[in-house]
Amino acid sequence: MPDIDALAEALAALLKDPACRASMGARARATYEERFTFERMYQRYLEEYRALVGDRETARA
Length: 61
Fold this sequence. Notes:
The protein is mainly alpha-helical. Helix content is 87%, strand content 0%. The protein has 3 helices and no strands.
């Protein structure tokens, strides 16, 4: 069960700490750039597709 009081305290603390907010934002942006850009997602889908097609081709042989 969620702890609403703890969430409220954490949000209040975050509102009072601009440096923490900036740090969290920078980390979130870095995660996005590392994992979720269009280029990265395209590459991951392409790798999965090739793995599936490769498995299918191996099974036919």
